[in-house]
């Protein structure tokens, strides 16, 4: 009788099991045991791609006698986000092996990462021929590709053609629309997802919050927040950071701080979002306190932490403080400033009137100055009435982008303020020759959960007659209290009545008038408006008077910062 114990069972070599985390160990055991199973090699390629030994994937692939679509897909995924992935796909077709939807999904993500629109369009055509473009897996990746390619309408069209849309498909659409500055469409897609009873993910919720943040739509923020709480996503670090960002950009820093304090999973991104919220309000003291608390918690500040501090100091024109924090960033924290950090310092110096010093920084920093740098200098010249230097800065902006309407508009405003009408005419001629059109002013106001949009000189709103009637009443009333129109920013040398009519029909004034007659803002509730451009000096002056006459708080978020008007003053202190 044989009393020897039975031999141990052969080792399981599937990558999904076993204690080894290093694919080389599994690979070695396969060689020792003489196993050359194709499915094992396919899994090994995937494991190598996720390890520090991804270079082993291609040699391993060449050992597969007859690679199938799974083998090719694994190899393509290994080289994702590089052009090698696309080369492998061409080789795959030559063998020939046709892709499945997972192959196409990986390739669409690669085309988005390497900005290869032409290859992506060819893949889309192939996916249609193979009836794969309407499949959820490849379809969602295709939505992502078009979104990254700045083609949101095509992304929406692809989405509409997908059968059995799941949470990944909706998340790709919501995030894509949000990233392409189509916040209203993104929110509509998010609510469509909810009504279709499709499960939310942290991506779809954070995308909806990003859209609400862009609109500074408080009610939308709260509705998405409530949904996140019901689904249990509010404790997620990504969603928590998005909530802080959304409430901060809506101007409700107290709500942002409440989310920040209640979410125990907040990481450095959340801390930076909270600091950025304070920065938008110009609350320098709270930013510094939060920065100190962050260090006390053992978190190391990063580039974005200092960017929040420097942007706040820049908006306030605190040049000495900006210089001190910039130096601390380099010497104490050993962080390398980026172009954005230098731009903040240039902005602070410009607003403080140190225009020559600001220009010196721009010319000596280790980056080629971009449009934001010269625009910061140009804005400083405009604020201090330095027309000659403004001309120089405007020309540098125009050299970078001859179609940059802001360069022409700002310098024309400076020249018109100085009464240099011949040069204003020259600027207008340059704009005409270059076919540059001034960006239309747009303002948004949220009333009872619905976002209303107004353009400058808008006559499309259903309540336009009532809006203009209320606006006329307001302007006539504040004139009795000493309001004088600011004509300086008018580009045309026209009659006073025409100037008055043009100034009165600015989009933010129309939004304000609508907010007042809507009945949605009872006494004590601030009227909140978002502007796509810098609020003009006349609207700024008018809003100060209106806030005092009506005894109302008016909050405007323009492209630069928040303005809180109350009792005839603004928190920006006249610097924006």
TrEMBL record:
InterPro entries: DYW_dom, E_motif, PPR_At4g14850-like_plant, PPR_rpt, TPR-like_helical_dom_sf. PPR repeats lie at residues 267-301. GO terms for biological process: RNA modification. Residues 482-576 form the DYW domain. Residues 1-13 have a biased composition (Pro residues). SUPFAM superfamilies: TPR-like. It comes from Cannabis sativa (Hemp). Belongs to the PPR family. PCMP-H subfamily. This is DYW domain-containing protein. It holds the Pfam family E_motif. Keywords: Repeat. Residues 1-22 are annotated as: Disordered. GO terms for molecular function: RNA binding; zinc ion binding.
